[in-house]
Amino acid sequence: MIKLNxxxxxxxxxxxxxxxxxxxxxxxxxxVGTKYGCGVAQCGACVVHLNGEAVRSCVTKVSRAAGxxxxxxxxxxxxxxxxxxxxxxxxxxxxxxxxxxxxxMSAAVLLKENKNPTDKDIDMAMEGNIxxxxxxxRIHKAxxxxxxxxxxxxx
Amino acid sequence: xxxxxGKKSFIQHPKLIITTxxxxxxxxxxxxxxxxxxxxxxxxxxxxxxxxxxxSVTAFEKVYKVLMSPRCMNCHPxxxxxxxxxxxxxHAMSPVRGHDxxxxxxxxxxxxxxxxxxxxxxxxxxxPKWALPPADMKxxxxxxxxxELALQIMDYNKNGHKTRAQLIxxxxxxxxxxxxxxxxxxxxxxxxxxxxxxxxxEWINKGGIAPAK
Lengths: 155, 213
Hints:
The structure holds two protein chains of two kinds. Helix content of chain A is 40%, strand content 14%. Chain A is an alpha+beta fold. Chain A has two domains: 2-75, Roll (Ubiquitin-like (UB roll)), CATH 3.10.20; 83-154, Orthogonal Bundle (DNA polymerase, domain 1). In chain A, helix 3 (83-90) crosses helix 6 and helix 4 packs across helix 5 (119-126). The longest helix of chain A has 19 residues, at 136-154. Chain A starts with a strand and ends with a helix. Chain B has one domain (52-205). Chain B is 35% helix and 4% strand. In chain B, the strands form two sheets. Chain B has a two-stranded antiparallel ribbon with strand order 1-2. A two-stranded antiparallel sheet of chain B has the order 3-4. Chain A binds chain B through residues 40-42, 47, 53-56, 59-61, 64, 105-107, 109-110, 113-114, 121, 124-129, and chain B through 92-96, 104-108, 110-112, 114-115, 118, 120, 122-124.
């Protein structure tokens, strides 16, 4: 049995400890907001937070997550109101949307560690998240907007 | 014989006389020996210099081949982005070093590089210590000549503050060993691990001598 804490809920899963965390989330628990892209940690569609870090769940064994804190896009905020989620909606960032959960989860780590990122900071943080629709410019704008919202909220 | 105008005789230089007496005394004491006649001086094996510049430099030739192979050099790049693959190209998605060598923001090494190798071709190799050297001591291998690299490794202020004993130990580090088990599709260094360790030890124990070039 693997014990997991996902989005502040406890789960016990009877699965092979070598199973990728992504499959535990999607196929066993039913949290399908996190997407499968490449399966080899190259695209970023499967990013979730493991103890606050933006790990790629397609190559992260579920055994690594045992007893740790996992957060998926479904648990990023209580009411889908994280500044990034609000900024994403305001600027209509998504096109097909497939990569966007991973984009937002990566951006959330950036904003947690850098409250006012420059374009260069955003590039450094987001270069591992590929968007086939090419929404990169809107992603940049939305991260800047979310940083402003976050700053306003904290005052 | 007349003295040249303005010159003084030896006796007229009191400072010179005192200095001469002091030097003569020191030389005399040193020659006669300060130890008593019965004292035995023990020369332990450890005290005997093991330096052998030819053997040391010869051993480093093998060490250098390993350190400059992609498995070692890829994480000791000249820039702040690691290298990747057997052709040492810049790492896809341009992860950067960060101050501690473990990446930045959502691009930290361990986000993709797991504690063990991921299965399959083109998947991230893994190790719990996966990282570049830190920003304040980059320990660059890329582009270094054998001489430059040997001097860098033997310099305490450029080698991660490692003593000789710690350097010897470093060759046994799990991250160094991982170079010979880097996942599917990656060539190991050109020298077997055991031969590398023997050459590393030989190079350091014989003096850690840098080659001429």
